[in-house]
Amino acid sequence: MMKKQGRLITILILALIVVVFAVLNVNPVAINFGFTTVDWPLIIVIVVSLLIGAIITFLAATGSSLSQRKAQKQWTKEKADLEQGQEAKIKAAVEAEQVKQKATYDKLLADKEAELHEMNAKMKQLMQSKEV
User: Which residues are in the Lipopolysaccharide assembly protein A domain (predicted)?
Assistant: First the structure.
């Protein structure tokens, strides 16, 4: 709230300065446009010059702002592309590791099953030799 009041007071003070400046500068001034000459009050010349300068500044700032936005949009797209590429690489690496782990697990399982089968065969053989 105080910030808005401060701005309002600043605007009012600047407006008062402009009004006093305008009242003090009403003398006509000759302006030569090359093809014609006009006599305008000095304050009009000052205000028109100020407005032209403000418009040029606004256009320059807008152009700079637009190019910054365009660059930011491009960087955001590049970032998203890089992140997507990294995610794809990570997913592929995880899947490759899972396949490798599954192959190792399947081999270990097959070895254990073969070992179990051998033990069962030996146990049957021992049982048969005990019966005889």
Answer: 25-84
C-alpha angle 19/10/57, rounded to 5°?
A: 80
Tell whether the torsion through CA atoms of 58, 60, 64 and 69 is positive or negative: positive
Question: Per the confidence metrics, is the pTM higher than 0.70?
Answer: no
What are 84's two structure tokens?
């997507």
Which helix (DSSP H) or strand (DSSP E) does residue 24 occupy?
helix 2-24
Q: What is the DSSP letter of 31?
A: E
Question: What does the pLDDT look like over 42-90, one tens digit per residue?
Answer: 888 888 888 899 899 888 888 777 788 888 999 999 999 999 999 999 9
Residue 45 · residue 28 · CB < 8 Å: no
How many distinct structural domains can be found in the chain?
1
